[in-house]
Amino acid sequence: MPPPYGGWTAERGRPRGGLIDRAEHDFAFHVRPSPSGPVVACSGELDLHEVHVLARALDDALAAAPLTLVVHLGALDFIDSSGLNALLHARIRAERQGTALHLADPSPPMTRLLHLTCTDRVLTIDPIPGTRSAR
Prior knowledge:
The structure is a single chain. By secondary structure, this protein is an alpha/beta fold. Helix content is 29%, strand content 29%.
């Protein structure tokens, strides 16, 4: 079994190495390590049918109690309320264990959802990858 954030890729919840061979709109993620903690890069469409994949990835990343967990959302084409709920639950868990959760480079659909739901007020958002906001 790969380490919780040891640079593996998954599609539809199945860990696999190498490139992602997927339909254009399926949700996928790739986890890579960084000095302060894992970076979970998301792509495709995140909805009720795929949210368990992200929730598991975030749980696995948080299990190692990193200083920071970054969720990169730049390649996310769509997210529904279940995906937002998974991010909010991860934020609560991260806060309880002292991990800083950052959303990096949110895509336009993600930015719109965060603004419409006012969750941009409770989630730390880094508009440019590698930057840190003071929230």
